[in-house]
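Internal ticket #5521
Category: modeling
Description: The requester needs a full-assembly model to guide mutagenesis choices. All entity lines are attached below as received. Residue total reported by intake: 420.
Assigned to: D.W.
Attached entities:
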Amino acid sequence: MSRLTRVGWLPGADRLSGRCHCGAQTEADDPVLLWDWLSAHPAHPTRAAAPPEPTPPPPHLVTDPALIRRRATAPA
Amino acid sequence: MTSVVRNQWYVAAYGREVGRDLFSRTVCGESILFWRTRGGLVTAMSDRCVHRRFPLSEPPSHLDGDTVVCGYHGFTYGADGVCVAVPGQTRIPRTARLKAYPVVEQDSFVWVFIGDPDRAAGTPIPRAPWLDLPGWTAVSGMEPLAARASLLVDNLMDLSHETYLHGGYIGTPEVAETPITTEVDEEAGIVRVSRRMADAACPPFYAKSTGITGRITRWQDIEFTPPCLYRLHSRIAPAGVLPNADGTDPDAFHVEVVYAITPETESSTHDFWAVARDFALDDEAVSDFLRESNRTVVLQDVAALNVLERVLTGEPDGYQELSINIDTGGLAARRMIARLSAAL
């Protein structure tokens, strides 16, 4: 039995379509959730989970600013 | 927890780098000495004398026939890493042997097996035959990357970044605009990402090397065999020109772009790159152009990933990433690498 898992991009849409090697198929907007669904083989959920509700973005913490200050500038 | 997948073959060098001079390279955190026997075979063994850990690659260490002599006290090792002479006494301690690595020279690369040597024979080495195949001409190089290998995997699995990071070289708007398909072949251990542009601008990388002046049909078919070997099958043809029904493809230009992603340490990587073509085989000007252009592109990636590594190192773990459709292939590669790590 083939062990080929495939994810396509639905024509004209931003949705992804996934097909497990067992033949099970689903659609999702998020590749992480789609891979979670495909990787659950053979216990595929009814459908891929919905993305979580957005929360306010967190501040970006820096533990060692010296490291970042020393970064090189990318060449032009 | 280590990010390096063990019990795998990794590219350690190009065959041309290993000769009758002692050559050292760190692979997956292990310092390895390479040299070629008088019969032409590549050997790989630990680059530290068992006596006082002097690097065997360091002068005045040297080769003497098919033995390597430590430049500090004269411990002498054969091609299998076993010590054959120590100074001042005839008894050689049984533990006087260097770790020897399974090594294979194939497709212009020197591959070493990192992990349990008994598992080497049963672990296939992925192929990149175009690098050493009649009918093809290849240029290649290696750039040191001060970043973890996974950042380069992310980079190469999502070529939409060509549009932004490599504009003027290999990027055109169509790359980022064109949907991809992703396949995971678990039996073969391959992640495939395909992006096929029917009518695209021809970037300078291909316009100058092929001579095509108009718009092109451009196919990018990636095959990544984690953890090390990445192949991009690139097909360039005048817009609308497709392969024949029998599979022949005489009116297209084919370029095989190969990367070997070899961890040096947890946070640094050997970025081996090669570009093979099936046209203008003897044209040195085309070779020079592709070599310089691809090296420039690689260095653009290196500069960006070095910055990213510094940023990641200077920030706490645990940030939530955001992935979108273009990341489908990269996410698949990460999952396959995680499975390889878990299977150890």
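Resolution: model delivered.
Comment from assignee: The radius of gyration of chain A is 19 Å.
Ticket closed.
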